[in-house]
Design goal:
By secondary structure, the protein is mainly β. Helix content is about 0%, strand content about 35%. It contains one helix and 31 strands. The protein is globular. The mean pLDDT is about 95.
């Protein structure tokens, strides 16, 4: 069973997504003409983040509002929640105390704890269109990190701290101007048993309970990038948004759930690459050798960069499409990096990048540009799902040979699953 979150097209499901014959895979829309949105202010089925609660509970969370920065990144009205596998839905527009609203914002991700299966965190980000038209509710709409301890039924704003006397933001703090601090990614690391999140213009944070978030001492890029993610460039700025001098406009995270390794990829406000960094867990007896997350290993991303008017290490459209996946493969980790194209490398082989899509060249793999979503089948990690501006694709061989030269044969590694999705365009989650 496969659920899709799409921009403007709502949530879809295929009950037979494992079928080898792609022509038989049948997607059905779940959120058209929802009564739950009938009274919502500017109700939207533009889905920024979609997640299914582990354990077969039937709970689905769909965060409305597209967090990718473009004029068609439409804002949302809150979280759509279903407790029956998408048959019926309810809308959650704000926190349980009604002090913070999701209206006018976008959702960048959900992450579930494996320690407490009812605990889930949401990363609430900017929806560009919402900013353009002023869709947010004054002194109510708020970006940041939120948590739920009852499977997404009700939500509270989390506290984000840099360790000083004042917070980045918190439920009892003054309202941040203009509307909080955008959280652009959140993941759960099942080996470390903690959440990790990226916060725009501040850096990377961790939490064991989703309630209190503390800034990582060892930020990715802090030792080699100038400017970097140190406190000098990334001040707390209480009651305001972070500093644009802090080189994290968009950060994205990935975890290899078997090794416990965490990966972070960051671009600044000018789409300049801060790099892909790895925290090496070195797991033994189901625990990491160090209790501290340390993004000490940098993988060379020169192949992914361009020299443009924005700068010499540009990740083209990094503010619009930046996604990462760390796929377990035996004793190896396959790293997938989605920007305009989808790149792949094997860490065991030194991470020599291969462009698997080459969408804008004569070597095209016949897969659309602008990658937004990467997922894999836990029971078969070689099965990769790719969501982008042109819909949905599947690879059954982990997208071919690692390190091989790009060629038009890359198209043979992808199956086009857009048969009955029509002209939906973006698959975001």
């Amino acid at each position: 069973r496969l659920y899709l979150g799409t921009t403007g097209g709502g949530v879809w499901v295929a009950q037979n997504a494992a079928a080898q014959d792609i022509n038989t895979i049948d997607f059905t829309p779940l959120t058209d003409n929802l009564s739950a949105l009938s009274g919502a202010r500017d109700g939207s089925i533009s889905i920024g983040a979609l997640s299914v609660q582990p354990g077969g509970t039937g709970v689905i969370l769909a965060g409305t509002g597209d967090p990718n920065d473009a004029l068609d990144s439409y804002y949302g009205a809150g979280i759509l929640r279903s407790a029956d596998n998408g048959i019926t839905w309810s809308l959650i527009p704000d926190t349980s105390d009604h002090r913070k609203s999701f209206v006018g914002e976008g959702f960048a991700g959900f992450a579930w704890s494996t320690v407490n299966p009812q605990l889930v965190v949401a990363a609430v980000s900017q929806a560009y269109e919402g900013t353009v038209v002023g869709a947010g509710l004054s002194n109510l709409s708020y970006q940041g990190l939120y948590y739920s301890s009852n499977g997404g039924v009700s939500w509270q704003l989390a506290r984000i701290s840099d360790g000083g006397p004042t917070d980045v933001q918190g439920p009892n703090d003054s309202f941040n101007v203009p509307d909080g601090n955008a959280a652009t990614s959140v993941v759960w690391n099942p080996v470390r048993r903690l959440f990790v999140a990226a916060v725009r213009f501040h850096g990377y944070y961790q939490s064991t309970d989703g309630i209190l978030w503390t800034r990582l001492t060892n930020q990715p890029g802090s030792t080699s990038t100038i400017p970097n993610l140190t406190a000098a460039y990334c001040p707390t700025n209480p009651t305001e948004t972070g500093s644009s001098d802090c080189p994290i406009f968009r950060g994205t995270l990935a975890v290899n759930p078997l090794t416990g390794d965490t990966f972070a990829w960051t671009v600044d406000i000018n789409n300049q690459d801060v790099g892909i960094w790895q925290d090496q867990c070195a797991v033994r007896s189901n625990a990491c050798s160090s209790q501290t997350i340390t993004f000490a290993k940098q993988w060379n991303t020169t192949a992914l960069e361009l020299n443009t008017t924005q700068g010499r290490v540009t990740i083209a459209n990094g503010d619009y499409n930046l996604t990462l996946a760390a796929v377990p493969s035996g004793q190896d980790t396959l790293l997938l990096a989605g920007a305009n194209d989808l790149w792949k490398c094997s860490l065991a082989m030194g991470c020599v990048w291969r462009n698997t899509t080459n969408a804008g060249t004569c070597m095209s793999g016949h897969v659309g540009e602008y990658q937004h979503a990467l997922e894999w089948n836990p029971s078969n990690p070689l099965e990769i799902l790719v969501g982008n501006d042109s819909g949905l694709w599947r690879s059954m061989d982990a997208i071919g040979e690692t390190g091989a030269a790009c060629s038009s044969a890359d198209g043979t590694h992808f199956q086009n699953l857009n048969g009955n999705l029509g002209s939906l365009a973006e698959v975001v989650s």
